[in-house]
Amino acid sequence: MALVELARFDNQVEANLALLYLERAGLGAVLFDTEMNSFGWGPMMPIRLMVLEEDLAEATTALEDFGA
User: Is 3-66 assigned to CATH 2.60.40.10?
Assistant: First the structure.
């Protein structure tokens, strides 16, 4: 069960909204690099939204429905 990157976000608000949307759809997800992004690195250190590899296709569809 490997984690793969689903999306990248420049700010924590968008990342958290996408995470909550996936969780509400019944998909597990986790955010990486939130601490580095909060130090003001912004686009140089985006927040990564990670999902299990086997959930990638379903999560991609869900995130497209979300509009990200």
Answer: no
Contacts of 34 (CB under 8 A, 6+ apart): 12, 15, 47
**Whole-angstrom Cα distance, residue 46 to residue 44?**
6
Give the span between the Cα atoms of 66 and 68, in whole angstroms. 6
Q: What is the pTM of this model?
A: 0.84
pLDDT band at residue 67 under the 50/70/90 scheme:
confident
CA distance 14 to 16: 6
37: left (phi over 0), alpha (psi -120 to 50) or beta: alpha
